[in-house]
Amino acid sequence: MEKIAIIIVNYKGWDDLEHCLDSLVLIDSKKIILEVIVVDNCSNDGKFEQFKTKYTNFNFILNTSNNGFANGCNVGAAAAIANYYLFLNPDTKVDQKNLELYIQTYIEHSEIALLSCLQIDEKGNYYNPYRLFPTFITFFGIPRAIYKALKKNTIEKRINYSETFFHPDWVTGAVILISKEWFEKVNGWNENYWMYMEDVDLCKRIFNQNGKIAIYKKTKIFHKHGGASRINVNTKALTKTEVLISKHVYISDNFSTFAAFFLHIRLIIGTLLEKLLLTIIAIPLFFIKKLKVNQFIFINYVNYLCGSMLHKTFISPRAVNYSKIPKK
Q1: Which of 197, 228, 259 is the last residue of a domain?
Q2: What is the DSSP code string of 292-323?
Q3: What is the per-residue pLDDT for 292?
Q4: Reported pTM
Q5: Is the same domain home to 217 and 265?
Q6: What is the helix, strand, coil percentage profile of the chain, to 5?
Q7: pLDDT digit string (tens) for 131-155?
Q8: Which of 228, 261, 284 is the last residue of a domain?
């Protein structure tokens, strides 16, 4: 039997995590051995010890701080004994039949570097498998939407040419199966990211090493979208700001100096104008919380840009690698 390390990064998502772990407890396989590792990013709400006591067969690791998804995944991988890593979101649930088939398929297809599976939500809808790497033309929403509309048939044929697998450019970090060999080959998750786009970055680095990315069509895992990232207005503003920050990090790491300069400027000007306008609109409509979020995003983003100019880096101040940058 092959041992599989299931690595779950948690931050105050205990209710979802409990459902996820309960689904793993039910698995009694004669084909695979599960090494379940939960990395808690310092939730600091008293529940870590409760879960550690309840799920005694699982390995619980308390991280040094809320270091983000990429760092949490790397911490879990460093503690793993297995030669295969399955990174799962805490808001997922698995069943034995799908899990066994999913893992066996990956082991049997050595040509695939990273494998995901179909993801289904509460309403029975499947998540979009047609994910493309951002390019200079398609980095922003409107040009990307136009490109996808014009190239829809071409994109679908390229990604969906196999009866067994989808072959997108990248897959969501909610469900990722990768060998220890490939994980070490690309140096794991990129800790320049605190949250968001680290999955795109991981797949891009695998692609650059001629590795294949795939989604197995014959297995599925339940994935509840959102989780702990939408707790309240402040948290929502924080996570949405991190989306913007991660875009800057991705631009810096994956585009030429010339292209990156124009993408950074476009992102900055577009975001500031949009959030400023929505902030002004929100003043007379203060009772609409969704609009209030934009005010916090605007403030967060301006503070981030000031820090980026001061320290000459687009890395998120919350990311682990930010502390390694010499400060002026």
Answers
A1: 228
A2: HHHHHHHHHHHHHHHHHHHHT--S-TTSGGGG
A3: 79
A4: 0.93
A5: no
A6: 50, 20, 35
A7: 999 999 999 988 999 999 999 999 9
A8: 228
